[in-house]
Amino acid sequence: MVGEDSKSTKGSGPKTIPITSPLYLHPSDNPSLNVTQIIFDGNNYDLWAEAVKNGLDAKNKLAFIEGKVKKPVNFDDEESVEAVAWRSCNAMIRAWLRNVIDPKLHASISFSQPVSEIWRELADRYAAGNAPHVHQLKTELNECKQGGDSIVEY
């Protein structure tokens, strides 16, 4: 049933998730998978975030952390294929994120919410802006002085 049309209606056969959909979980996807070898330790957010995005993009799950795959309106409907698939994918991605975050940080991150909110919370808390670095570089440039040296010596 993989790859069948997901627009089946009631009574016309089972409804499935197409393999090209972000809601599709491959049989090899499992909660113990590491989407990157880089472990987030609280200090390496930018490097880690890029590696996680790359890993999720390869799994066609990047749209979940970007918030593009919304929680279905019929989220609690146990008969809705999309709702069941969304819950499964969200739980799988939460597990994948937990696997690549230092266990010391787990208590400070709520893993019970949608992954897009977890991702936004991590970015808000740990993403370093360039403003402090730019300020530091400008300060160093302003303090640069030739003094009495010739240009060649300087």
Can you offer a commentary on this structure?
This protein has 154 residues and is mainly α. The chain has one domain (1-129). Helices cover 40% and strands 0% of the residues. The protein is built from 5 helices and no strands. It has helices spanning 45-58, 62-65, 81-99, 115-126, 131-143. The protein is elongated and about 85 Å long.
Pick out its properties.
mainly alpha; elongated; disordered N terminus; 154 residues
Order of helices and strands: HHHHH
Number of domains: 1
> How many angstroms separate the termini?
73 Å
Question: Roughly what is the average pLDDT, rounded to an integer?
Answer: 85
Structural class: mainly alpha
The count of strands amounts to: 0
> Any idea what the shape is?
elongated
Helicity level, as a percent range?
Answer: 40-55%
Which residues sit in consecutive blocks of at least 5 with pLDDT less than 50?
Answer: 1-11
Sheet having the most strands: none
The percent range for strand residues is: under 5%
In short:
The protein is mainly α and 154 residues long.
Task: Chart the SSEs and their pairings.
Blueprint: H1 45-58, H2 62-65, H3 81-99, H4 115-126, H5 131-143
